[in-house]
Amino acid sequence: MHHNCTSHVVVDRHQIAVRIAALAARMADDYLRLGTGYFKLNQDYVDRALSADDKGMPPPPKEDLVLQEPILLICVLKGSIIFTADLARALCDAGIATEIEFMKLSSYEGGTKSTGKVTITGGPIDAVLEKCVNRHVVIVEDILDTGRTLTLLIDMIGERQKAKGSALKSSIKSCVMLDKPDGREASLKHMKADYVCFTIPKEFVVGYGLDFNQSLRDLPDISVFKQDFYIEPVELRKIRRQNKL
């Protein structure tokens, strides 16, 4: 099913749900081996898990589990809010506790193409960075496109963790709903997210939190936006000049 201003569905709601559950299971496996999440594992179990040739380790005995500080999810507003909520619930089902903080950044500014410039548009950024110190952080983004936003966030959080925290008690990983490798800037071709739900072509998509000019976030599927429903601001200005409007 797609809206009349979208051409076709790229990823439907059922595919999204299945993929997020699988991704959460993989993340849980990674973090539980570090003793992070709902439970802290005893060191003997961690040592055996890290040295195992396969991933067939049995679960640790319940008496060796204690509540542990949750993973900190950094939700990049506004596009990743629905994805972050579903990911947090899936991680909970997989045995990983989370806390969620928010940062509001943008590089589209109402158009269908990234401006190439990342703008921090609101929120207590410094307070959020402080909460990243001595924490295992996962940056949650809707789309990895040019790579500028993710690079900026990793640098900002990494600098704060390095300045005020311990490298042994902190980490930064990234999780993106959609990866558009063809949109990556030349200097950021190496940029990859740690966890990716879907890789798609360089098309402008809406739905499942992704918007066009703040609309269409509520569509349950991710679909390609019809370009003939919109004229880019630069083209619109050209038309106005030509017609002396």
Task: Explain what this protein looks like in three dimensions.
By secondary structure, the protein is of the alpha/beta class. It is 31% helix and 24% strand. It is built from 6 helices and 11 strands. The protein has a 6-stranded mixed beta sheet with strand order 6-5-4-7-8-9, with helices on both faces. A 3-stranded antiparallel beta sheet has the order 1-11-10, covered by helices on one side. Strand 7, helix 5 (148-164) and strand 8 (171-179) form a beta-alpha-beta unit. The longest helix is centred in the N-terminal third of the chain and has 20 residues, at 13-32. The chain is globular and about 60 Å long.
End-to-end separation: 39 Å
**What value does the average pLDDT take?**
80
Order of SSEs, N→C? EHEHEEHEEHEHEEEEH
Radius of gyration, in angstroms, nearest whole number: 20 Å
- Helix share bin: 25-40%
Q: How are the strands of the biggest sheet laid out side by side? A: 6-5-4-7-8-9
Which runs of at least 5 residues are low in confidence (pLDDT < 50)? 234-240
Summarize this, please?
By secondary structure, the chain is an alpha/beta fold. It has six helices and eleven strands.
Give the SSE map.
Layout: E1 6-11, H1 13-32, E2 39-40, H2 43-51, E3 66-67, E4 71-77, H3 81-93, E5 98-106, E6 119-122, H4 125-131, E7 136-144, H5 148-164, E8 171-179, E9 195-199, E10 205-206, E11 222-225, H6 233-242
Helix pairs in contact: 1-3
